[in-house]
């Protein structure tokens, strides 16, 4: 066994990209290559995430296509699909392969285009997203993904008194963070009033409680500790990765507000890293909807159960607060190109641990955590990164 | 055993007739609201088809404003607590979390898949 390190990262701006997937992905991949100090022929394997290309762009078997496009033709390629947790699942397998000595240098990445400007209109894309719900026992109700998280969040509001204003405070915080991230899709602040005045997508979520449809790509080069030492990229250690699933469909889950897969994945990642939630300095988590961040900060142990609702409103999870959450702006403001999101979280955290995050830098961060959730809270991957001594 | 295992087709026919079918595990006793091939609690394949109560309470609910293609919003979706199991359903009326509801029929998609309707 060896330790895996991230030695290079890259991502496109998130937003609208009128370009084919290979061209979009190449921008992120080459940025990661250059950051690491490698080129295509140095890479031993490709771990790739794309959730919906077959449904949205009539494009499947993408991994070898992209490998060929960026100078890695011939390497073993694998493509992961795990709804919104797609590319963090790819990352997990890349890390395990490096740790096992199967490969020394691998490329991990994801790409997706979801904006109405470049693809399907909102009703059609809403349908594509909804295919991640149970085909027989969820989809026929007309349940959407905002609806899934609305169901979980409404129960949290009932149990703990979380208010729509509390939820809006998450959007306000993450939009403020997004103004400091030049790659974010939304670079402007918002207010609680503006969020609450928006149209209802799925009660209690107004439009601005929801992440946008996004196009974008993200990539990371992962290498063994021994090989990383010879590369020019500043390495960040992969301290632990946890990956768990929960029962599908949601009606059969034991506890709706627990997001149990996140709790299980976090426990694995903390144990592997030898840390607790108290040791985490900065977090990128899966705020596809404001309520999702409320549930996640509790599931990860960053706040006590029942305190997630007010964490953003009280400033606890803001930059400068006790545990900064989503300094990138999160999915909410940075954007959410499904298959790219998990790796984009790792891009942000790598830059945070290197001290390269500019205005949104969390000072003296040594441990960073990524939480990437897929489907009806059925899949969660939690990764802990650390500064290399 | 597989001959007796509750299928989606059987579940769909029953719910159209006003009977909500679920499963009970012969090994651990767990009751399952959405049919499976094995128990979600213990993995046992010995699942007996049971009739679930058609009355329950709203466990959580939402009003879908932006609907997928093929659906016309707004409409309500709820997780209904039937006691030993829960099911996802359409909800008509103004029942809130904790309120009593009963099976009132089904809604059908264009594909011919039913969803339970509670009110």
Verbal overview:
The complex is a heterodimer of chains A (389) and B (119). Chain A is of the alpha/beta class and 389 residues long. Chain A is 37% helix and 19% strand. In chain A, helix 4 crosses helix 14 (338-354) and helix 7 (164-178) crosses helix 11. Chain A is globular. The model of chain A has no long low-confidence stretch (mean pLDDT 97). Chain B is mostly beta strands and 119 residues long. Chain B folds into 2 domains: 2-51, no CATH class; 55-118, no CATH class. Chain B has 1 helix and 8 strands, in the order αββββββββ. Chain B has one helix at 8-16; strands at residues 21-25, 31-32, 47-51, 55-64, 75-81, 86-91, 100-108, 114-118. In chain B, strands 4-5-6-8-7 form a 5-stranded mixed barrel. In chain B, strands 2-1-3 form a 3-stranded antiparallel β-sheet. The mean pLDDT of chain B is 95. At the A-B interface, helix 5, helix 6 and strand 5 of A face strand 4, strand 5 and strand 6 of B.
Low-confidence stretches of chain A: none
Largest sheet of chain B: 5 strands, mixed, barrel
Question: What's the number of structural domains of chain B?
Answer: 2
Count of DSSP-assigned helices of chain A: 14
Task: Identify the notable features of this structure and list them briefly.
heterodimer; A: 389 residues; alpha/beta; Peroxisomal Thiolase, Chain A, domain 1; 9-stranded mixed beta sheet; two-stranded antiparallel ribbon; globular; B: 119 residues; mainly beta; 2 domains; 3-stranded antiparallel beta sheet
